[in-house]
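Title: [Solved] GTPase HflX 3D structure

Original question kept below for reference.
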Amino acid sequence: MARKKDADRSVREKPAYQPGMEAEGPTRAVVIVPVLTRQPRGDEDTNRPRLTRSAEARHDEAVGLAQAINLDPIHTAVVTVNDPRPATLLGSGKVAEFAEIVKEGRAELVIVDHPLTPVQQRNLEKELNAKVLDRTGLILEIFGERARTKEGTLQVDLAHLNYQKGRLVRSWTHLERQRGGAGFLGGPGETQIESDRRVLQDKINKLKHELETVRRTRDLHRAKRKKVPFPVVAIVGYTNAGKSTLFNRLTGAGVLAEDMLFATLDPTLRRVRLPHGTPVILSDTVGFISDLPTHLIAAFRATLEEVVEADLVIHLRDISDPDTAAQAEDVERILADLGVDAGDGRRVIEVWNKIDRLDEGNRERLLADGMDGNKAPPIAISAATGEGIDVLKAIIETRVSGELETLTVTLKPDQLGLVDWLYRNGDVVSRTDNEDGGITVSLKATRSAHEEIETRLHRKNNG
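Solution (posted by the thread starter after getting help):
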């Protein structure tokens, strides 16, 4: 995604050519995963203790993020940081060590899987003689590659500009003062950095205005859907949990579903009819991830409003991932920030995906551990193989339309046009042909379908 010169820190802006550097192919990258033994002052959140992520899980996720935009991690390392340095985060010895690795490997990019201050990023670039991206910058690059719709592009651009705005300080060599004022000498004028920041702010304001237009359009579409009240079911989860695969399994849609982080970005909505005829709107949303930047969540709020407005939320977990508990906690935190209580069993269904990747012993143990008496048990499925999908559909239908009820409907000869509707919206148990040409049907249907049947019969009787 091309960026203008005054705001460009893109991965695709490579350093000048050096002898031996490959002309084409993936960008060679070094991936560094700092593990801080203590949090910097002010970062602790005593009210919300977090599960400790394993260094291996963080390493694998960082490599996956790099590979998601076609980077070639030629060297990866987990580094324990006992005393974070304000200038470079890492100690001078480690910086020198990585500088040698970058030089020998002819790496063009260094990924640091941790938030960096503008000063730290600039100092590391000087010491390592390569472009440096922190976790936030890398996620923004991935989002920039994945955005396909106008809305997605606007949201990524807004988040990227907000990220760049804080990194203008001493980022370039051209920040000399401009001449200003009237007369022969003039005043000190406006610094180049102030001019650049003003240009960025103008762009940010313009993007916010365009996104507000998008939000109003979404509100109109949502209002139209409420006039034809189809329940909305939103699928949320950690990135690569299998949301798009489940969405395709339930709807038959062709949404991109690959085994990579952030395979899809733009939200997709489809109408689907459940086994007993209940129509719902299914929404596939952007994947969540740990340490998702606050300004990125703010930029995607228009998209995430689909989750806030949903009648039912499916929290999809990759139960085969060793880090699944920490991932679930991260999703629940973001849902809480959006005003959705993940512990509300009436509105949120916890679904364990990729159960096919577990052996029988681990599967039984995990399901037994999930039987918490304080909330509904999780639903085990495999979106890839289809295992458990029928159970999930039945539970979704029960949540949005009520329990199945057995009822008997007698149709007069002039009401036989409703027969097809009964078969499509209920589970017909028996049918009896009456002497007057009518029929009597015994069926199982949801409470909402029962009410609809009575409404349709009333119309026929009074038509």
